[in-house]
Automatic annotation (TrEMBL):
Coiled-coil regions listed: none
Keywords: Metal-binding
Protein's name in the database: VOC family protein
CDD domains membership: VOC
Top-rank taxon, per record: Bacteria
Alphabetized SUPFAM superfamilies for the sequence: Glyoxalase/Bleomycin resistance protein/Dihydroxybiphenyl dioxygenase
Domain spans labelled VOC: 13-144
Length: 146
């Protein structure tokens, strides 16, 4: 094994998630309703290509999670497809299976379709709750179960 001169820098966590969406206002409303996010009142230009579109930033003051929804003028409105090169899904960590059950109740109350909590034991123990945003982007709430 080669001896390295520098130590690998660390990553402190996820800062933000930025999907391109077909209807930025509908997506902003959905993410605010589902995750309780606050909207930053000013849209952000696409730096270096300001004419191509803009982003709306939503933030969670408790966790620090930020979601930047992007509108691109060139977007033809096609639905998300995780089988194509790019994003497959986004998984957010929660503290316990009990928290996943609370999310099930919350999503049910909002009328957001989901797959229910799935418990897996291979390749390690975890539980996951899968649902999709308005563009079909798969979102997961995930916890290790030991």
């Amino acid at each position: 094994m080669t001896q390295r001169k520098t130590q690998q820098p660390t990553v402190d966590g996820i800062h933000h998630f930025s999907p391109t969406v077909t209807d930025i206002e509908a997506s902003a409303e959905w993410y605010q309703r589902v995750f309780g996010l606050e909207r930053v009142p000013v849209p952000f230009p696409h730096y270096g290509s300001e004419d191509s579109g803009y982003a709306i930033l939503l933030t969670d003051p408790n966790s620090g999670l930020a979601i930047g929804l992007h509108h691109h003028r060139a977007n033809m409105g096609e639905q998300f497809d995780e089988t194509r090169t790019g994003l497959d899904h986004l998984a957010l960590s929660v503290s316990s299976r009990t928290t996943l059950e609370a999310w099930v109740a919350w999503l049910d109350e909002l009328g957001v379709e989901h797959a229910g909590v799935t418990d897996m034991h291979e390749p390690f123990g975890y539980s996951v709750l899968v649902f999709r945003d308005p563009d079909g982007i798969q979102l997961e709430l995930f916890t290790l179960t030991g």
